Amino acid sequence: AQVDKGGHKHFMAKEIAEQPHVIAEAIRHYLPVEEDAVRLPGGGVDFSGVERLTMVACGTAYYACVTAKYWFEQIARLPVEVDIASEFRYREPPIPGKTLALFVSQSGETADTLAALRYCQEKADKILSVVNVSESSIARESDLALPIFAGPEIGVASTKAFTCQLTVLLALALKAACDRGHLSAEGMAEYATAIRGLPNVLSSALEQNDAIRLAAQKVSEARDVLFLGRGLMFPLALEGALKLKEISYIHAEAYASGELKHGPIALIDKNMPVVVLTPKDALFDKSVSNMQEVLARKGKVLMISDQNGIDEAGDDVWCAIRMPRVKEALTPILYAIPAQLLAYHTAVAKGTDVDQPRNLAKSVTVE
Ligand code: G6P
């Protein structure tokens, strides 16, 4: 079927706005309302005998994997390796027994990811994939393909596929946690309730559109932008920086906040916008102390946090974007919205081709 922009100026804007709806669809499949347990398609997968998970992908899908590593390790206590497909496939990594290999790809056709999957075919116990295109090569060559239900994604820079990948990966991590005895029925029910609330929460995040557009006007004048985050916000910082460089052509880099002192702090001056992703979570105080190091060097801090976080530490920042509060594990899915909107509005302010950025392809099917 022909996909149109549905009244939006760009496919990317439409796809950002669609997220509450498509995520609701993914949630409906993986966490059906009648039960507080994760439901997987086909024969599913049992994590009780699994000793290790290897995740491989490219681009935005890779950052979804990096985020999921935190979930699998923290919630399911399962050791995880994450790698970029082009590195993984040529390194000839050993795949010990009881390893589950998981490949994440929107298109399901990325050449390096497919090659990495084929490398694992005889070696891993089971091949799983998280894909948007169910008829794709990666889906077909997996033992179990988990669809993300994002619908066709036209904008070259991935948005709704990313948050749907995260939603499915979180569900999978919760399944692993239950199978491995690290999550009680009560704990699972709590996650299920929180996840089912996500579509509403994402809708209220989208209401920050105008505030983010104003911030983006200022960001569009920068030559370089730094993104900082800790814990679950670190992979999201990586994704935020990727989005910004892909479509606005502004040089952007992401660092784990704790690494600030080990190099990037040398870059901070009054011309450097620094996006600090910091919900009021367990690591908030540590992120704020890093943020203060930036402020002390006259860096322009764009703080993205919730009301409590902004009240507590937002006095001296250049601008603050307010997000709703959610259960900590869900913050990457929520904070993806302001990261995407910031890239989008910065690109619009610069007048670049948002849906077809120069030199990039939606799906990289050659090496
Ligand atoms: C290209 C696209 C990215 C995407 C990456 C991986 O670089 O421009 O948006 O994240 O490929 O694509 P995949 O289809 O495997 O998720």
Distance between the termini: 30 Å
- Fraction of residues in β-strands: 15-25%
Q: Give the helix tally.
A: 14
Structural class category: alpha/beta
* Small molecules (ligands, ions, cofactors) in the structure: 6-O-phosphono-alpha-D-glucopyranose
Query: How do the helices and strands follow one another from N- to C-terminus?
Result: HHEHEHEHEHEHHHHEHEEHEHEH
Spatial sequence of strands, sheet with the most strands: 2-1-3-4-5
Q: Whole-number average pLDDT?
A: 96
C-alpha Rg, in Å? 20 Å
Helix content bin: 40-55%
Q: Uncertain regions: pLDDT < 50 for 5+ in a row?
A: none
Q: Which overall shape is indicated by the principal axes computed on the Cα atoms? A: globular
Describe the biggest sheet? 5 strands, parallel
Number of E strands: 10
